[in-house]
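Running this now, will post back.
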Amino acid sequence: MTVPSKSWSLITDGQVDADSPLDTTLITALRDNLVHLEEWLGDGYAATKDHDHDGLNSKVLGTPSMQSSGYQDIAASATWTPSLGSYQFVVHNATGAASPQLYIDSAWRGWTGAGNGIREVGSFGYFDGANMRFLERTGAGTVRLWYQKFN
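Update: finished.
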């Protein structure tokens, strides 16, 4: 990035209070700040509707597309670490349940007892591929964890 041709000027409260005149110093500072901002954003920047974050503009991201789908069987009391990505998960199993866990302070943290978990309901998550996993926590049998992975 090239250095902007105009420096950023601080405008004090005293320059814009009700008793201060509209003078050359204030107007020049306002103009220079606008030029500085335009050049800092990029001289060719133009705000437009429906941009696509392609490095040239700043459109709101569109709906992610599904990259893959499938399932992972997790044996009783075993774990599975999904690869890096954004997922939607659903478990439907009469006996087992899967609980997400995070590796924090040298230990896996998450629900390990009976009760709540992902069971016949959906869950969304972003997985880093290393420090996040699912545990089949009931020990009652293999649980099938269905997923969709998004781009």
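The helical segments are 13-16, 24-41. More later if anyone needs it.
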